[in-house]
Amino acid sequence: MVNLQNVKVLVPIRQASLTSGATGTSDTIDTRGYRHAKLILYASTSDVVSNTYSTLHVRESDATVVSNFATAAALVGGTATSSTVGFVIPNAETATSSSAFMVLNINLRRRKRYLQLRLTPQTTVSSTLVCILSRPEQSPIGTATDQENSLVVVNA
Fold first, then answer.
1. How many Å apart are CA 132 and CA 83, to the nearest integer?
2. Which domains does the chain have, with CATH numbers?
3. Separation CA 22–CA 97 (nearest Å)
4. Fewest beta carbons within 10 Å, which of 38, 62, 85, 131?
5. 114 closest CA partner among 40, 26, 9
């Protein structure tokens, strides 16, 4: 089996331009049926490495109601780790790069069904978030319906 055929790819944030101090929230990610999520955040380059996000939260809920989403400390990014911050947000890219700004690997077996990413930049930034759901509970998948994509090419 080819593992990359066994994933679901989503784009919960599509080139969103966020101004300094404004909070952006991704589309809700339904993780039902998957055991692993990889969140890949791309951000526009900056003139100063400290012009990055001031806060970054992965929020979770058992329902899609916005007010039900809560943040676990391990899934909060900040400038230094503490009892309320689980990871340090890296510096911004200062040169054009095709690499991701940040990658978060999340074990979904201990998480609630729905996820969202909430972020606040220190300066105006364009952000894109790609989510790859993998390790499905029922395997293999491979139809366009399962993938929720318009085209699935297998063994091309």
1. 28
2. 9-137 (2.60.120.380)
3. 24
4. 62
5. 26
